[in-house]
Amino acid sequence: MVAPTRALLLGGTKHGIRRLRLTTKQVNGGYYKGTGSGSMGSHTKWGGYRLDPNKLRNYVVPDLTGFKLTPFVTKKLEPTKGKFGKGGPMSGEAYLEKWKELNGVN
């Protein structure tokens, strides 16, 4: 007799796979997952949208003067505007030429 894997059924907990989150395909049509973004205001009766200052998000950015870490962006890269040739930036030839140039391959 073939039985499903016990670890899959239990999943490390007493109730197992039933403890996972529901998806929209597992429930009836009344389930709406949403994005967790929340509203920033309200709709007007004329079809507009009015922002509510109390609902807007305020991000507090610390003072970064003298901060030693920098973004992970190289400073050696030169601007490439107009340097791709007739194939454009999405051509394979331009990619291969740049790869050979950066990796020292003839």
UniProtKB/TrEMBL annotation:
Molecular function in Gene Ontology: structural constituent of ribosome
Compartments (UniProt record): Mitochondrion
Keywords: Mitochondrion, Ribonucleoprotein, Ribosomal protein, Transit peptide
GO cellular component annotations of the record: mitochondrial large ribosomal subunit
InterPro entries documented for this protein: Ribosomal_mL41
Any one GO BP annotation for this protein: translation
Superkingdom field: Eukaryota
Protein family (similarity comment): Belongs to the mitochondrion-specific ribosomal protein mL41 family.
PANTHER family: LARGE RIBOSOMAL SUBUNIT PROTEIN ML41, MITOCHONDRIAL RIBOSOMAL PROTEIN L41
Name the record gives this protein: Uncharacterized protein
